[in-house]
Design a protein that fits this description.
Blueprint lengths: L43 H17 L3 E7 L14 E7 L8 H16 L8 E6 L14 H8 L2 E4 L11 H24 L5 H22 L7 H12 L6 H10 L10 H16 L1
Parallel strand pairs: 2-3
Antiparallel strand pairs: 1-2, 1-4
């Protein structure tokens, strides 16, 4: 599944966006231009999950009510070296409210440790919610599509507070509409900005296409998918309903495929996102 991009905890520097290029042996290149990890790759995802969970337990055992592993790695549907390892932290009531900023500072120190590590810095993604942010009724400021993702998450600390939440199809559709609109606006802003490097512009275009694509699937009542597997649904069920070429190219760019026809990719991606938004209204 996929959701609109979330902001990292305050404190650590944001990761610079970009589609990670691959070296001659197919491994993604790190910030130093060298291949990341040995050919027989150790599981950096598992190491990150184990280490991050241990640090949270050690430093924030009283503040953190739940630590969830969400997204494609939680169900082993990730793309190694490309997919994020997504964590969702739910704070205890005493660590929320007036103490939220203090709690965020403590979490940020731990997150920064992993952002500095070349092995983990490009894959870790952390979102933090206060105790009152978890929906308890049919109304919430937290997107219902993100609630759906969280429901599939695995609890590393505590219980998963999202599993018992009932989500109506109407709420999912409304959230999907907003999700597509946000990604379209982001893409329009990227295209209108002259000082964005071509490399980053292409990355942000891919993000917008995949985001709008996932919103399209949510709206059509698809639930069991992630960004890494959305392409399967589009090719199996929706190729006759919408032009999926931008989705196919975006998926292959995430895999660092080099032999791609990139002609008019950004303009076709904009058309795709506009089409999605128009159909979901």
């Amino acid at each position: 599944m996929s959701t609109p991009p979330s902001k990292p905890p305050a404190g650590p520097p944001a990761r610079s966006p970009g589609i990670r290029p691959a070296g001659p042996d197919g491994r993604p290149l790190g910030p130093d231009g060298k291949p990341m990890g040995p050919i027989l790759m150790r599981d950096e995802y598992k190491n990150l999950v184990d280490g991050f969970t241990k640090d949270i337990k050690k430093e924030l055992s009283k503040e953190v009510k739940s630590l969830l592993l969400i997204g494609s790695y939680a169900t082993q549907e990730h793309i190694a070296g490309e997919s994020d390892c997504d964590f969702l932290i739910v704070l205890d009531e005493k660590a929320s409210g007036e103490n939220f900023e203090k709690s965020m500072e403590a979490i940020s120190k731990i997150v920064f440790k992993y952002l500095e590590d070349p092995l983990f810095g490009s894959i870790i993604d952390v979102e933090v919610l206060g105790a009152s942010d978890v929906p308890t009724k049919n109304e919430t400021d937290y997107p219902w599509t993100k609630v759906l993702v969280a429901q599939q998450g695995r609890a590393l600390i505590g219980d998963n507070p999202f599993t018992k939440i009932k989500i109506s199809e109407e709420n999912i559709k409304m959230s999907a509409i907003e999700m597509a609109r946000v990604y379209l606006e982001q893409l329009e802003e990227v295209i209108a900005t002259d000082d964005i490097e071509e490399y980053d512009k292409r990355y942000l275009t891919v993000e917008a296409v995949l985001g709008c694509g996932c919103a399209y699937l949510y709206y059509n009542e698809e639930k069991e998918f992630y960004r890494s597997s959305a392409i399967i649904l589009f090719e199996d069920k929706y190729r006759d309903k919408i032009d999926i070429t931008p989705i196919q190219i975006s998926h292959r760019l995430r895999l660092a495929v080099k032999t791609l026809d990139m002609k008019d990719f950004i303009s076709k991606s904009l058309d795709f996102c506009k089409k999605v938004v128009a159909e979901l209204k």
